[in-house]
Amino acid sequence: MIRAIFFSIFDVHEGPKVLHQVPANSIAPSPGSSQIPLFHFPPVSPYIIPRPEFCSKLITFCTPVHRVLCRPVCLQSLSYPRNAYTFSIALVLDASTPFASYATVTLKLASLLQTLEEQSRFLSRDVSAPNTGKIYALCEILLEDLNNYCESMIPIDDSNTLNIKLFPTYPPPPPLYPYQVPLSTVRLESLTDPNWDLTMLRVLPYIDGINSVKQISLLADADYKLVRKAIEHLLYYGCLLLLDIFSFGASYGPTAELASFVEDMEMQEECASYVALPSMNTNTKAPQSGPVSGFQLVELYLKIRQGQTIKNFYVENAKMMDKIDVRRFITFGVIKGFLYRVHRYAIATSQSSRRKREYKTKSKQKANVSIAVDVQGEDNDADSHLLELEKFLDGTHCFDEICTELMISEQQLMSRLKALSDVQIICR
Q1: CA–CA distance, 202 with 127 (Å, rounded to integer)
Q2: Who has the most CB within 10 Å: 104, 139, 241, 291?
Q3: Residue 22 has pLDDT above 70, yes or no
Q4: CB 74 within 8 A of CB 52
Q5: Residue 373 confidence class, pLDDT cut points 50, 70, 90
Q6: How many CB atoms lie within 10 A of CB 159?
Q7: Do 94 and 67 form a contact (C-beta atoms < 8 A)?
Q8: Under 8 Å between Cβ of 112 and 89
Q9: Pairwise CA distance, residues 92 & 69, whole Å
Q10: Eight-state DSSP code of residue 250
Q11: pTM for this entry
Q12: Model confidence pLDDT, tens digit, residues 136-179
């Protein structure tokens, strides 16, 4: 929120001077005013009206409570007293307010006023008393519109109009990895436009909460880096959530947030409508959700325990799960925060490094020995697969990541790990 906007100039007799301020007396109180200003102007005036070499640059500084943004402008001309006219329009924010979007507004506003002054002496010819006239009205409308509507359109004259919009600033998106699964939180097809980026248009049909980022790039036949940038763009604007790859061999555990689900009837109803399998009505041919009670959902979530795979959980509760989509059931718990994924990691012991060195020595020996071509090819392929796998065996790469990077299934990964007897698997 903007606390104040003020317009200041360099007066040839008084020096830096606040000419207009909104709200009144917020920066330079008039004589006899009892209002306490946001900050004391004289100590900071060298930053508001600086030397010419610092003009035409964005300047931002903080007082103990507030942040000031301005872009001073110094115009050289023989028609001005002392051959120069220096002015600055500044925005005052709370010190803790993110100011990136306000910096853009400040730059655009200063640029417009500079153009108006160069074209028609709009600023220097204004002889209105302080806190009156067109410049004051401009500051007043700008403060009200940006605080209330985040945009403003102000006619300046017959040929100039000020159009300014405050674009929201979001935090940076979380790191995006190839094995993560994006899930849309809005109807992306309703937002699309034919003029959108081509990669974005190719990616959207495959964002379904099932395909990982790497799979999306392959299905869309698009470069992975471009696909990643497109998905990061959607993440930045809150259109996506990131999930783990769903598999029946995965394990999940409950969090303390499960207690809120047990007590929240509305969340239970939301869950029931989300996880219920559609049943086909023979008359209307329209999918209709089967009855799933909140008590049933609570009981099922309470049965989830760490170390139990989804496959075993489903087999044990097959009767209760007959009308529930198990993938959506797990996804809902992860989204709401009362389920978390238990990942598996592989860690190689010190023997693995020795095995790696032995493989390199063995490969050199094979190169000097004449053997059957097909047998040598099979041996080299098997050994190269193991060598390729070993870089992931430091305990920092989960199974989802390894399978995605090597383009293999979890079953194939386990068979390769069994070939390395010196590997331990941990869950966390």
Answers
A1: 59
A2: 139
A3: yes
A4: yes
A5: very low
A6: 8
A7: yes
A8: no
A9: 7
A10: -
A11: 0.71
A12: 999 999 999 999 999 999 988 888 888 999 887 788 888 999 99
pLDDT at 126: 87
Task: Output the pLDDT for position 365.
Answer: 52
Instruction: For residues 390 and 353, give the distance between their C-alpha atoms in angstroms, rounded to a whole number.
Output: 9
Structure tokens at 294: 């909140």
Contact 257, 263 (CB under 8 A): no
- pLDDT score of 291: 73
Q: Which residues pair with 66 in a beta bridge?
A: 94
Contacts (Cβ under 8 Å, ≥6 apart) of 176:
213, 228, 231, 232, 235, 242
Helices 265-275, 294-303: crossing angle, 10 deg rounding: 80
What local confidence, expressed as pLDDT, does residue 279 receive? 67
Q: Which long-range contacts (CB under 8 A, 24 or more apart) does 45-48 make?
A: 45/8, 45/15, 45/16, 46/16, 48/8, 48/16, 48/72, 48/88, 48/90
Judge whether residue 380 has pLDDT over 80.
no
Lookup: tokens for 393: 């065996």
Element at 342 (helix H, strand E): strand 339-342
Residue type at position 257:
E
CA pair distance 314, 264, nearest whole angstrom: 25
Q: Average pLDDT, stretch 209-221?
A: 96
Token pair of 264, please? 């929240």
Q: If you write DSSP's letter for every residue of 187-238 in order, what string do you get?
A: -HHHH--TTS-HHHHHHGGG-SSSS-HHHHHHHTT--HHHHHHHHHHHHHTT
Return the SS3 of 115.
helix
Report the distance separating Cα 252 and Cα 245, nearest Å: 12
Report CA-CA distances (Å) from 175 to 68, 231, 240: 32, 11, 13
Residue 374 pLDDT grade (very low, low, confident, very high; cuts 50, 70, 90): very low
Of 413, 287, 284, residue with least CA distance to 345 = 413
- Distance between the two ends of the chain, CA-based, in angstroms? 43
H-helix or E-strand containing 89? strand 84-94
Rounded to an integer, what distance in angstroms lies between the CA atom of residue 246 and that of residue 265?
27
Give the Cα separation of 207 and 181 in Å (integer): 8
Residue corresponding to tokens 């990895």: 177
